[in-house]
Structure prediction request, 300 residues.
Amino acid sequence: MKVFLTGANGVMGRSSIEALHRSGHDVVGLVRTPEGAAELKACGVEPCHGDLFDRETLVAGMRGCDAVANLATKVPIGKAALRPGSLKAIDRIRLHGSKVVADAARRADVNRIIQQSLSFIYADEHDNWIDEHSPIDVTRTTEPCVVAEAHMADFAVDGRESVSLRFGLVTGDDLNTAWLFRRAAAGRAIGLGLEDSWMHVVHPHDVGSAVVHALGAPGGTYNVGAEPVRRRDYVDTIAQAAGRREGHFLPRWILRLGGEKLEILTRSQRVSSQRFSDRTGWHPMYPKLTPDWLDDLARA
Ligand SMILES: NC(=O)c1ccc[n+]([C@@H]2O[C@H](COP(=O)([O-])OP(=O)(O)OC[C@H]3O[C@@H](n4cnc5c(N)ncnc54)[C@H](OP(=O)(O)O)[C@@H]3O)[C@@H](O)[C@H]2O)c1
Prediction:
């Protein structure tokens, strides 16, 4: 297949390019800078120069493609996430960008879209398992993801299909984990929420393999991640990879400061990805969080 990627230079995009190429697919990547285009070309990707909000560029780039994977993000990292307006760019990408991408795909006669979404949107279910039928908790922070999924569902008529992948927290050689790793290495707190609550995590390499499997998945919404992990174990794993005996949790007043932006990072989410495995044969190459997920960060 020929697959058009947005966010081709990001963590999810790079992993998807590798996995798509391994499976024999061709990739066209949306890119905004000459440096980004050179990087894509060096990995055998055909660059499409333009912005996510430039519909005409997208239509031209998508023509002749069999599928689109919308992986563009702008996630604020670390303390920057707490600044006023920090979610403006990512919200715009989710609320409006997803609609532009879906419209462009329709006009370019592409029949399948894969949308990256987040399992953070589920409500806190304590120790109960969460599957794709579990309730979501819509706040100002999660609403844009829900809207992006809805744009994809609207696309899926007249023989077209869409797949929304609700990924866990990307944990590996990526900017957010690197920020946590540096803090943990300095003995600073990185844990948020209750120590015995559950988190849903995914290794960056498993993002790419999920995108490949989504090319053949029945349309719909799927959770994608490794085994859920207790927050205490997540924090300790990062701290131990960073050379510390154990990790530390932030005081609860920080949560009040962060409001809804931080609230989603504290939800207890014991998310199952069984449905995606059952329907596509996908299995994570990294099924359980271990310190070696952070080997690249430790070596750097
Ligand atoms: N499920 C999750 O936990 C999750 C999901 C997504 C991201 N993250 C985290 O967020 C952090 C940053 O991720 P990342 O490295 O993927 O983000 P990034 O470096 O910001 O990459 C996002 C991609 O989207 C593209 N993009 C953004 N706005 C665009 C626009 N208007 N038009 C065209 N392309 C646009 C970027 O292009 P440019 O290169 O031109 O900027 C880039 O290719 C990482 O730590 C990652 O793990 C986590």
